[in-house]
Amino acid sequence: MNAYDYRIRALFVDVRSREAELRELSPGLSGTFLGGRGIGALLLSDNPILDPLHEQAPLVFSTGALTGSRIPSSSRMSISGFSPLTGTVCSTSVGGRLALSMKRSGIDLLCITGRSVHPVVVAIDDGAVSFETISLPLDAPLSGVFGELNTGRGSSAAVGKAAFGGCRYAGIMVDGAFASGRGGLGTVMASKNVRAVTVRGSGKISVRDRQAEEHARRDIIRLFDASPAITGRPGLNHFGTAALVDLMASRRMMPTANFRRTYFEEYRAFSAGTIRRRFSPEHHACPGCPIACKQKAHHDIPEFETLSHFGALNENADLDAIIEANRICNEAGMDTITAASTIACLAEIRGERYTGARLVDMVRLIADSSGDGELLGQGSAVLARKLGAPERSMSVKSLELPAYDPRGAYGMALAYCTSTRGGCHLRAYPVSHEILRKPVATDRFSFSGKARIIKISEDLNAAIDSIGACKFAFFGASLEEYARGFAAVTGLEIDHQGLLAAGDTISALERHVNCLRGFTRKHDLLPPRFFTEPGTPGPGIEVPPIDRAAFDDALDRYYRIRGCTKDGALTPKRREELEECRRR
Question: Sheet containing 9-14: which strands, arranged edge to edge?
Fold first, then answer.
C-alpha cells in the first residue's frame, strides 16, 4: 500500500507538567487512520473509559493530509475528545486557518492532556511550544479574547465563559467565526484550564506529486462548477447554508415547537431570500475553498441549523432575535443547536413560548449560568429528566437533533441513531439523496436499502473528516477525485475504495469505544414522539409516524452490515480486526 513513508507528526503537550514531545506515528497507523477524525479516534481508544473531564482524557486537534495542498475545500480539521454532554466519542470538523497554521508549523496533530494550575494559552510558533497568559477575565466576550490573541499569531482557538461556567455543550471557537460546537469539547478544554491555543507557522508544506495534485484539483473545480447545489442559483455559493430553510419547509420536515410539528408558517421571516434582501451579506471562505458558504454582514449571519432552531423549533419569527441569540452563543462559546433545543424542551414542559426578547434572555441566562440558565446549560436530556419529562428531550444519546425532522427522511432517522456521537446529521448525510436527490434519489419515506446506504455514508464521511476535506465539496465532487488528490499529496497508493475501507475502520473503532463506555442498542433509538405522532401534512405530502417495527428491522440490518451483534456491539471477529489495525 505504501509507496511513500507517510507519517503523521504528533505534538503531545501536558499542560500540568508543561512538557511537550513531538513524535512521528508509524506509517502503518498513519496510513490506516489517515489523520483528522481517524487519528483522533485512535488516540481516544488508548484509554477508552476515562471521564470526559479527567485531566488525562485527551483533547486532540488534528489536521488532514490534504491541508495546505491545492486540493480545493480541504483546510478543515477535527477536534476530538470524550463528550461531557453525551459521554460518547466526539469529534467536530471546523474551518478557519488553524489547520493550515499547524501544518506550516511542522505538526499534523496536537494532543493536550493534564490540567494547568492557572488558565493558560498554549502557544505554538513553528513547532516550538510556550505557555502564556492573557489579561482578560474568564467571562470576557470571545471577540475581545481573539482581539488580544491575534496580535502576530497565525490562528487561534479559544473557549469562553460558557465553558468555564460549566455549560455541558460549550464549544471551541476558531478565528472568532468558526465553531467546533457539538458535544461540549470547549468544556473539556476549560477543564484543562486551557483558555486558548495559538499557532503560527512559516514553513512550506510538501506534496509528493505536484502534477497529479493539479490534475485532481482541475477535476474537482470542474465538478464544483457543474453542481447546482454549490454554484447554482439557490446554491451554497449564493445563499450559504440558509438555502436549506425553504427546502426543509417545502418538504414538511422543518422541526417546529420542539418537534411537535414539522412546518412553521412564518419560516420566510428567516429564509435565505429575506436575509439577502435585508443584509446583502458578503461571502467568505476557508483557505483554498471556492465554495465560500459563510455569510457575513455587519454581523455574522447564522447558519441553517441556528436559523431553524432559534426560529421554527422555538416558534420564533423574529430574525433579529435569532441573530442576537447566535451572537451571544458565539461570544460565550456554546453550541447553538443544543442551546436552542434545550430552550424549546423547557418551553414545552412549562407550556410556554420563548420568542423575541424572551428567547434572547434565555440564551443570555445560559451564557451567564444564572437562573434557569444553570439547568439549561446541562442540555435537554438532563433538564427533561430533572423536570420529570424525559420524553420531551429531542435527543439521541443525549445529543439534541438538528434541523431535519426524521419523520420526513427515514435514512436520517436511522442515521441519527447509529451516529457515534449521538443525534447528528453529519456522521451520515442521507439528506443528500433523500432530499437533494444526489447522487442517486431514494424514497425518503422508506427504510428499503437505507441500512447499507447509511453504513457506506458513515464510512465516506469518516474518511472525509480524516483527510481534512469539507462535506459540502461532495455535493459536486466524489471520493474518487479526492482519493487521487490524497494519493498525489501523500504518495500512498490508495484509491477511493481504500479510503472507504479506512472510513469503515474509523467508524467501527468509534462504535467499539462507545460500547466500552456502556452504550448498547437501547441508546440507538429516537425519542418516542417520532413513533407515535405524525408530522405536519402539506400539499400532496403526508408525514406519518415512523413505523417502529420497520425501524427495528432497518437497525438489525445495519448491525449485520457493520459487523455487530443484535445489541450493537462489534462481533469478536470485527474486534480482532480492529486490534490488528491499532497495532500497525
Answer: 19-24, 9-14, 109-113, 59-63, 77-82, 89-94
Q: Name the residue among 465, 458, 404 with its Cα closest to residue 435.
A: 404
pTM score? 0.95
CA distance 584 to 582: 6
The CA distance from 553 to 215, in Å, is: 44
Among candidates 288, 19, 335, 301, which has minimal Cα distance to 182? 335
In contact, 525 and 419? CB cutoff 8 Å: no
Question: What is the largest distance, in Å, between two alpha-carbon atoms of the chain?
Answer: 64
First-to-final CA distance of the chain: 13
Residue 442, classed as helix, strand or coil, is: coil
Confidence of residue 151 (pLDDT cuts 50, 70, 90): low
Q: Mapped to the 3 state alphabet, what secondary structure does 1-58 carry?
A: CECCCCCCEEEEEECCCCEEEEEECCHHHHHHHCCHHHHHHHHHCCCCCCCCCCCCCC
Q: Report d(CA 236, CA 264) in Å as an integer.
A: 23
Residue 423's identity, in one-letter code, is G
Nearest-5° angle of CA 33, CA 168, CA 379? Answer: 110
Scan for cell 430553510, then name that residue. 245
pLDDT mean across residues, the chain: 94
Residue located via cell numbers 412549562: 350
List, as own/partner pairs, every contact residues 348-353 make where C-beta atoms lie below 8 angstroms and the sequence separation is at least 24, other chains included.
348/257, 348/258, 348/260, 348/392, 349/384, 349/387, 349/389, 349/392, 353/314, 353/315, 353/316
* Dist CA 46 CA 582 (whole Å): 9
Residues 241-256, mean pLDDT to the nearest whole number: 94
* pLDDT digits 0-9 by tens, 68-106: 999 999 999 999 999 999 999 999 999 999 999 999 999
Nearest CA among 368, 288, 347 for reference residue 67? 288
Q: What distance in Å separates the CA atoms of residue 184 and residue 273, rounded to the nearest whole number?
A: 32
What span, in angstroms and rounded, lies between the C-alpha atoms of 33 and 39? 5
- Answer yes or no: are the C-beta atoms of 104 and 205 closer than 8 Å: yes
Distance CA 133, CA 135 (A): 7
Beta strand residue intervals within 75-233, DSSP E: 77-82, 89-94, 109-113, 120-125, 128-132, 155-158, 172-174, 178-180, 194-200
Q: What is the pLDDT of residues 281-308, one digit of tens each?
A: 888 888 888 888 888 887 888 999 999 9
Residue 256 pairs in a beta bridge with 261
Q: Is 35 left (phi over 0), alpha (psi -120 to 50) or beta?
A: left
| Domains along the sequence of the chain with CATH | 9-200 (3.60.9.10)
Q: How far apart are CA 261 and CA 345, in angstroms?
A: 14
